[in-house]
């Protein structure tokens, strides 16, 4: 029995005419189907599948990119290559380099191969001979809170869906104790002890989205010196139950972007009955060294600076996933910042943004028409439970940012202004939470910061901020920032008025509080005065016209 991932339909795609179709890998590249995007069973599964396609694309075209982009002699070659690839993407022309590459490795893309099944180990087994039901790798089925599947349908999946979840599991599987595989020297007492989540689960997945899937692949390709050793799983000898590099007992050192995009964090074996996949065995695979410290080869994730782990002259960075709380507000700095940007110090170094964004900015400075003026970005992350031993929630977020914002030297001041605009928005929203706590005091209660008004205000402002970002003119930001601060001020004051109405008559009258030295009247009115003061500190440009009018009136007296 065979199931070729090159030819069988298994990747859920949306075509450019809006129709949905499952395609094999070869169909994505042979020009037979104009594909707009991959749209799989979940956002993070989609990201894992796109990364698989990218690894194929990178390796197929890698020999063409064997030069340093920053070398003046190579710039023309780089520009010509990107122009050719983008034209091919627009015309949906067959990608001959990829098609030839797939021919070389087609025997390794058989999901059910008796010796080399795709991203699996054919003879994987445990001492007991047991395995799990297929729900083990299907998050919506494994978690009882998800009810999309029911009854018998939960007990099996087809070959195509099983393949998708295998790719997802290698990328995003949670940590925790695994089945102890025979032949793995790390197994103790029949158990495989935690080695961490899948590599992609450690990262903040950042995808630059093109007009169609083929352009997306081009936009997420960083021109760099070709490394023959940076091999995806199908170019290497088939994995066994042991770690790939047995010379390092604890972990395996990744070789590059293609290696990481297909990182085999688990050893997997599917169990098939007829045309159904009913079971799976999952054990530990290749461990990432030092939780990813200074692994900077993945071009699609930002990295955070760790002051605790760094030593003098030896800064340490870790991949930086995107969080579920206030995603947009907290994602801007890792998305746009680079070394040397304003607002950072030697003790608090800037994060490192995804290399894809830096490369596209460099390319745009050389050839402005080659890169979209507005980058459409999609962010993907998994937030895990305690010790990474469960999937808590999935982060999937979209935003548009002008390419000019990423120019290395030209836009350092503009990046700082944008980050300050985001911070001032957050500060204003936090002030609203404090204001709500003061209303509790005015009504006779005890002060307690109220996070709900803060989150509500940020939730209202977020879509407006995204629209503002998409129209940002990097060459003239001051006026736009002033208008934005006015928008924030108005929103916060509107929400404050709602809170006052809900605080009741006691808060309007207020109460006398004694701090030991002075007697204060705490009321809705005094709280509002405090809020306006804080807003003026956070949003000074929003109050400039008021201050000017006040000065003019005083001068007229």
TrEMBL record:
Q: Which NCBIfam families match?
A: casA_cse1 (TIGR02547)
> In which residue ranges is the amino acid composition biased (Basic and acidic residues)?
236-247
Look up the coiled coil feature and give its residue ranges. Answer: none
Task: Please give the superkingdom of this protein's source.
Answer: Bacteria
Q: What is this protein called?
A: CRISPR-associated Cse1 family protein
Q: InterPro entries under this entry?
A: CRISPR-assoc_prot_Cse1
Where is the region Disordered?
Answer: 228-253
